[in-house]
Structure formats: C-alpha cells, structure tokens
Amino acid sequence: MRIVLLGPPGSGKGTCAKIIGKLYNVPVITTGDMLRTAVTSDTPLGHTAKGYMDRGELVPDNLVNALVRDRLAQSDAVDGFILDGYPRSPNQAKALDKILRDTGKRLDHVIHVILEDSIIVDRLSKRRSCPRCGAIYHLANKPPSIENKCDVCATALIYRDDDKPEVITHRLEVYREKTQPLLDFYQQKGRIETIRGDLDLRELPAALKRLFE
Ligand code: AMP
Questions:
Q1: What is the dihedral of CA 205, 85, 137, 81, to 10 degrees?
Q2: How far is the CA of 59 from the centre of ligand 1 (A)?
C-alpha cells in the first residue's frame, strides 16, 4: 500500500497516518518529524532547514526530495509506505512520481484530510508534543495526566515555535498557496479520497478502511 496524505497542518493527517500505518503494517514517513530530528541533531540539513521551519515556510524542494528519496529506498518502505507532509507542492509531487517510476512503483491512494481553519488554529495553539516519543496532547481535549509531562515517557512537553498563532496563520497561507495546487495535480490523475480530520477517534479506523474498499 503506497499512500500520500494531504491536508493543512493540524488537520489530523498525522493521526490518520498512524492509524493507516497500523492497519496495513507499513511505515509512516513524516517529513516534518524527519526535519525536526535533523534540526535537533544539528546536521547540515537541519542547519539549513531551521530558518525556513521557524518562519513557517517550506524547506527547499531539492533538500526534501533527497531526504524522501533516501528514506523510500530503505528496506522497510520497499513494499509500502504512508507519506505524511510530503509532497507539499506540485514540484515535490513530480519528484515523487519520478522516484516511484525509477523503481517501477506507483501510488495506490491520495487522501485529502479536511478541516476548517478556525478549528486548526485552536488545535495547534493548544497542541503540546513530546520531543522524545512523539506523543501529541491538546491542552483542552487531551491534556497529559501530569501538567506538561508526557504520559508515555515522562519527558517535558514542548510547544512548537511554529504552532504559535502568528506562525500558524502563515503556515496556513503557505498551505493554500503551495499545497492546494497539489489537489489539482492529483485530481487530474483521478486519485483523491477525502476524509474529515475531526472524526471521533473510535470511528476513524473504520472510516479510513472504507476509503480503500
Ligand atoms: P509539519 O510538521 O508537517 O507541519 O512541518 C513543519 C515544517 O517542516 C513545515 O512548516 C516546513 O517548514 C517543513 N516541512 C515539512 N515537510 C515539508 C515538505 N514536504 N516540504 C518542505 N518543507 C517541509
């Protein structure tokens, strides 16, 4: 199963990706997480990416395309993957098509996760995440049991700089300008399925499964 998940930041793409990954036993490849790891590990890629990420802008295509090409070549991704946060522009989509073509593969599904901007801004400004295990919390709807500590690994939670309201607004603008054209790109190829990003967590696995029937 080779799947691309599209949708604005905070739409629930990441949650959908994790559920599909478990359902079909394929790795979830999240470019945002890979880039954040590069930043914290202070690699040359992280060094370059940090400024773009702090401003809520897209990291240049050539860097992200190379990152994804290398990741897709790893053995766990050979038989399937879920891409979360990539492609983010028609240029990246074309690069992905080429990466797949070069290895004789093609995408099976493109899923568009939709949610209104007002809900997204609320979600992201109250989102806290664990820098160690990646667990996600929401201060109102899913707070940690102990204030500011991860329930899973007790690490101090972080409030991502790019989840602060002024940067969120910019990320949504960037999404509309750069990522929206992707929908046209994939629509022309006739392969987009849509799901709301605020379905009840108990309903979501079945709703996602229905997309693949
Ligand atoms: P995310 O966690 O997916 O919202 O990504 C956080 C930030 O990482 C984005 O605002 C971009 O700066 C960068 N980023 C993640 N994925 C990509 C991508 N496919 N292309 C360019 N930049 C990306």
A1: 40
A2: 7
